[in-house]
Amino acid sequence: MSEAAAPGDVTDPRQLRRTFGAFATGVTVVTAGGPTPHGMTANSFTAVSLDPPLVLVCVGRDAVMHRVLSTAAHFGVSILAAGQQPVARHFADRSRPLGAGQFETVGWSPGPATGAPLIDGALAQLECAAWRGYDGGDHTVFLGRVLAMRRGPGSEALLFAGGRFRLLAPDHEEVAA
């Protein structure tokens, strides 16, 4: 029998972050258009429902993106491909310019359904109508109804686990779930 890990202190944010970081996630850039466009790297993203088609993203209440999504009618989600680590770092950097300036060094295109900026070369892109927001402690859980989507030609996603970006090891054999 294996030895159980000692219980952690759930009031210690560093221990919580380390424990939560054991769960590998994909990496996205969430964007909103309009007169003051904004983007933010997010790994708290998931599909919620097929009917209606819904996704969610969790955004910290202290983030600029929180204020943006609280009033936005639409937003975009670009699911980053394995080679897009510099894009993820750019939109995670709190010292980047605000507004349109933050998109000047990144390839992007306006989404045809909403105009939200979508990151070029992304593994997949979604355009969403803001649907609902729910209290999530120090975050808000924003749900979006998917209006349009595109799947890029790539096959490998950029991952985040253990506090750093990761890539999948090459497959030797596919395993069916």
UniProtKB/TrEMBL annotation:
InterPro entries: Flavin_Rdtase-like_dom, NADH-dep_flavin_reductase, Split_barrel_FMN-bd. It comes from Streptomyces yaizuensis. Pfam families: Flavin_Reduct. Signal peptide: none annotated. Keywords: Oxidoreductase. Residues 20-167 form the Flavin reductase like domain. This is Flavin reductase family protein. SUPFAM superfamilies: FMN-binding split barrel.
